[in-house]
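Q: For a teaching session next week I want to show students how multiple molecules come together into a single three-dimensional assembly. I've collected the sequence lines for a complex. Could you give me the predicted structure tokens for the whole thing so I can convert them for display?
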Amino acid sequence: KAGVTQTPRYLIKTRGQQVTLSCSPISGHRSVSWYQQTPGQGLQFLFEYFSETQRNKGNFPGRFSGRQFSNSRSEMNVSTLELGDSALYLCASSLGDRGPYGYTFGSGTRLTVV
Amino acid sequence: SQKIEQNSEALNIQEGKTATLTCNYTNYSPAYLQWYRQDPGRGPVFLLLIRENEKEKRKERLKVTFDTTLKQSLFHITASQPADSATYLCARGGQAGTALIFGKGTTLSVSS
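A: Of course. Below is the structure for the complete assembly, covering every listed component.
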């Protein structure tokens, strides 16, 4: 079956712009989680969506937002980009209810802010 | 806050030896721990999950333990191979519906 698909793979944006990243989970998976990965901080949890509702939220500023659609696809948006937002953004899907389950990650979107 | 720590940033071993990676958690015991492998430029890949009430889990050459007294999980790769070289991540999770929180990882290098 198809894995988790993230688009685009690479993105270069200018400071102050906004960006939208997309994630298509594995068919049947209802939970999508987003993570920011940087060399110094590792994988940091952004938020999780389950059945179109934000179920958990990490400690990131309000410039970071997300949503989930009825087909479980998810998007995350970062407004007013800062240089420090340069990172690999990973999304992961899981069945989401009861569990626990292992997460299936996408290959990520590499965002560079200049 | 609930933390998960992988104290060693890097581990270098020779082919054929057993690699042992450590993961420590703070405060209350998580309901489960998970281990992932990540190769450069790729997303993490799920390896094993162990619940709080399980002492040990095995999968082929992999073994994970969960010690609630020491607040620690150990991840073992037996008969290690150069292909096992990667970053290994430990993650803690609560009951269903809680976020999965990752440690910073340990980069394993297996030399032939």
